[in-house]
Amino acid sequence: MQSLTSIFGGRFLGMAIGLRYVRSSRSFLSFVSLIAIVGLVISVSVLLFVQGVVGGFERELKTRILGVLPHVTLYGLEHLREVELAQSIMSQSNGVAGLDLVVTGPGLLSNGRKVVGTIVTGITPISYERVSSINTYISDFDRSDWKAGEFQIVVGRGAAQALDLIVGNQVSLTLPEMTASPVGFFPRQKRFTVAAIFDTDSELDSSHVYLHINDADTLFRSRQNRAIQVRLKDPLLVVEAVSSFYEKTDNQVLITSWLSQHGALYGAIQVQKGMMLLLLSLLVAVAAFNLVSSLIMAVNERQGDIAILRTIGSARGLIMSMFVTMGMVISSIGVLLGIVLGYLLGSFAEAGFPWLEKTFEVNLMSEYVVHSLPVEYDSMDVIKVSLISGILSLMASVYPSWRASNLNPAEVLQDE
Question: Are 95 and 148 in contact, with CB atoms under 8 Å apart?
Fold first, then answer.
């Protein structure tokens, strides 16, 4: 019992001395500790900020892109009984959150000489909420005013800007289907009135338009353009859902999912997040090496204290605990301040990015799926960053502490 008490007492004494060394008023030792802390603050904040940006893109893909787009689409429903059967089958599936019948196909929007390719979707304004959150991105427009036969169209902000459209303008919608006339075959075309403009701040604003389902049915004139769009409770389980739908429909329909359009992007985000964590962890490792040099300098400056402690019978464990404590306190301060700085960087970057684009009149994110700089901090990312930094700092503290515990007190005191 006495030996255990002496061991733990020695460890606590070593920790107390290590804490005192951190607060040392010696100018050189304080400067060395400050440099080590600054290095950790910068590396941890950069690592956390980059993880936050990648996490922000993942959040935008899940909530914005997958909130608007259907998770699964069933094509090939030419007859009404097929539609009713498919709807009945889908509604009974456990993973389905909602579904709705649509009419969809490719088209070209044109205003004068300006043309934009787009995906046309005919929807039932009220019931389409079961599938998509597009209604939340349409402002100043009452869905009850969206009536069939008035040939109204809702376009995205990107398409509206490309075609110089505002609400109330006329725009031509051309379909790839051909219409026979006495003088030949011509693409099917119809003039629509812009009823509203939606703004998701993503690539969807340039590639999708919405009509009333009856107007779309009249325009396409083909049952092959009918489809059922499905929203899943968990869009990441789309592979299992598609397999289940094929089994339940006996492979009589064509089924597509969001993976066909954005699956590669989601996979790239997951890989990028892991790779950036790995690569930027090397930056933390560099800061940890800086901690090694700082502790070695501290050992050299405290050789006299170490020799005296060893002479009066202090164990090597006490000496090691002194400098391990010193290293862990320095790293803890650096990691904590780095996390705070990382959060501040994320907040300022997300809030200040629109101001930056407006000031310099440039759209920096126009080529990306999301046209803003999203930042999303996950608690697991913070834990990972803290653990990586703590482990690297602990490893960096071991060698200087071991070196200090192996100093020969006789040689040190001889030189004093």
Answer: no
Distance between CA 151 and CA 170 in Å, rounded? 10
With contact defined as beta carbons under 8 Å apart, do 262 and 68 qualify? no
Tally of CB atoms within 10 A around 251 = 10
Q: Where would I find the beta strands (DSSP E) of 17-135? A: 72-75, 96-111, 114-123
Of the ranges 101-115, 137-151, 318-332, the best mean pLDDT one: 101-115
Angle of helix 316-360 relative to helix 379-405, nearest 10 degrees, comes to 140
Question: What DSSP assignment string belongs to 234-284?
Answer: SGGGHHHHHHHHHHHTTT-SEEEETHHHHHHHHHHHHHHHHHHHHHHHHHH
Query: What would the two tokens of residue 241 be?
Result: 């859902």
Pairwise CA distance, residues 372 & 357, whole Å: 10
Inter-residue contact 57 to 269 (CB < 8 Å): yes
Phi (first) and psi of residue 37, to 5 degrees: -65, -45
| Residue at 386: amino acid letter | S
Q: Where are the domains of the chain?
A: 2-64+266-415, 70-257
Q: What single letter denotes the amino acid at residue 28?
A: F
Phi-psi bin for 184: left (phi > 0), alpha (psi -120 to 50), beta? left
pLDDT band at 5 (very low <50, low <70, confident <90, very high): very low
76: phi > 0 → left, psi -120 to 50 → alpha, else beta; which?
Answer: left
Q: Angle 316-360/303-311 helices, nearest 10 degrees?
A: 150
Contacts of 320 (CB under 8 A, 6+ apart): 14, 401, 402, 404, 405
Q: What is the pTM of this model?
A: 0.75
Do strands 184-198 and 152-156 pair parallel, antiparallel, or not at all (unpaired)? parallel
Kind plus residue range of the DSSP H or E element containing 231 = strand 226-232
**Taking a C-beta distance cutoff of 8 angstroms, is the pair 318, 309 a contact?**
yes
For residue 58, give both structure tokens.
């993942």
